[in-house]
Amino acid sequence: MIGGPSGYRDDVATPGPQTPDPHVLVLFGARGDLARRKLLPGIYRLMAAGLMPEDFRIVGSGRHRPDGEFSDEVRAALAEHAGEDLGGPCWESFAPRVSFVASSADDGADLAAAVRAARDELGEHSRTLLYLAVPPSAMAGMVEMVAATGMSVDARTRLVMEKPFGADLPSAKALNRALHDHLDEDAVFRIDHFLGKEAAQDILSLRFANGLFEPIWNRRHVSGVQIDIPESIGLEGRGSFYEETGAFRDMVVTHLSQVLGFVAMERPESLDARALRDAKAAVFEDLLPFDPAAAVFGQFAGYRDEDGVASDSNTETFAALRVLIDNDRWRGVPFLLRTGKAMAETRRTVSLALREPDQQIFDCRAEEIRRPNEIVFELADDPLIGVEVRVKVPGPTSTVTRAPLTLDVERATGDQGLEAYERLLRDAMLGDQLLFARSDEVERLWTCAAPILADPPAPLPYAVGSWGPQAAVELAQPVGWRLPDHDAARLPL
């Protein structure tokens, strides 16, 4: 048996009481982009930090075997994305744990045998974590395969699913039925890595741990909320995937809506998985169906020339919406959601605009200070929280300007959090559902999305490196989008 991580590096943290059981991690899509960029580096960094099980195996799988050794592909991925020295004992301990077995939705017998052998080697207390990093259209077939081969019938097996969870309400319901035929809901982990970001969780702590903010977190004090996730990158070889999903399914019904749940929920009864997800599900029930008349779709110039994209494609690479929540806390407050590929910048910004004082004695009409006070979260790997206020310019006049009060959480606390996938992989191994989506949440969000899916806006063209179609700018009036309109006083990155 391969030894555990302790002992191969002097500065590795000693595993604490929350050390996961020994695990066989099965990565479907192990040669794909997500596994190379996030999953394999995340597992490696967890091991280096002493946060993996004391013993584990990684069984990669997919339709096509590597030309050479899978461990060589893994090492190349870690060298590019993990930022680690791969010449020492850490890699020497990691490499023998990695293997690859080809499989498909039609044939998983060899994979199932390999998983059983690895479980037997790890002992009776071992668990299996099945990670489906596959396209949405392949999910149902893979679920049936792992059930038919016996990989999911063990009570010590859990299954992680990448978003989007289905393509609409009927497919999401069908996928949930298939899952529940073979697994308890507690064994299904629908991953949304935005909820694993430290800054997303800071939304909860800022609200519910501070008497300064919770009293103003409502429609009497907040005039609007923006959840803005532009990306400067294009498709990066994922044309076929994007043709299947588009920006609305890929980002709005998943990441942006889940962050909206954190921003808008009522106070949970406690900070555990049931209570937190009950609170999210309740605010999703109050979320009004998305109105096609309050949505703008776009497609960046040159999209149809990308590999895997149809020459006449109407798939949207940009989506902006104005949505409403019909409850006493938020009634009448617009929530503006925006995301897109090939845009001017990559940002992950959540902002709450506060209402203006009833009577203003300072002149705040100048363009550079016309925006209201804002509470801002930059959902970067290094969490930043800011409150943007107006202050008097030093000198003999009464002129005011804007200034950010900024908190760099890691610098202020001296602690560095886990990257989102690292946190969520570890939580799944521990069986902690706190930051994962539940089936009723997923189905409710597809219900809200149904009007736009039935009558989608025609995608408007926009230039690569821009902020999207002009119609989306108009959607955010009268205040306008914080990005890029308010670059002068942005929080430092």
Category from helices, strands and their pairing: alpha/beta
Mean pLDDT: 89
Report the C-alpha radius of gyration, rounded.
24 Å
- How many β strands by DSSP? 15
Calculate the terminal CA-CA distance, rounded to whole Å: 45 Å
The strand order across the widest sheet is 14-13-12-11-7-10-9-8-15
Parts with pLDDT < 50 across at least 5 consecutive residues: 1-17, 487-493
Strand content: 15-25%
How is the biggest beta sheet arranged? Answer: 9 strands, mixed
Q: Shape, please? A: globular
Task: Give the SSE string.
Answer: EHEHHEHEHEHEHEHHEEEEEEEHHHEH
The helix content is 25-40%
Number of helices: 13
Question: Could you name the key traits of this structure?
Answer:
nine-stranded mixed beta sheet, 493 residues, 13 helices, alpha/beta, six-stranded parallel beta sheet, disordered C terminus, globular
Task: Describe the protein's architecture and organization.
This protein is α/β, with parallel strands linked by helices and 493 residues long. It has helices spanning 33-48, 70-81, 89-94, 109-122, 136-148, 169-182, 198-208, 239-264, 273-286, 409-413, 420-430, 439-454, 470-475; strands at 23-28, 56-62, 98-102, 127-132, 157-161, 188-190, 222-230, 295-300, 318-323, 335-340, 349-354, 374-378, 384-392, 400-408, 460-462. It has a nine-stranded mixed beta sheet. Strand 5, helix 6 (169-182) and strand 6 (188-190) form a beta-alpha-beta unit. Helix 1 packs across helix 11, helix 5 packs parallel to helix 6 and helix 9 (273-286) runs parallel beside helix 12 (439-454). The two termini are 45 Å apart.
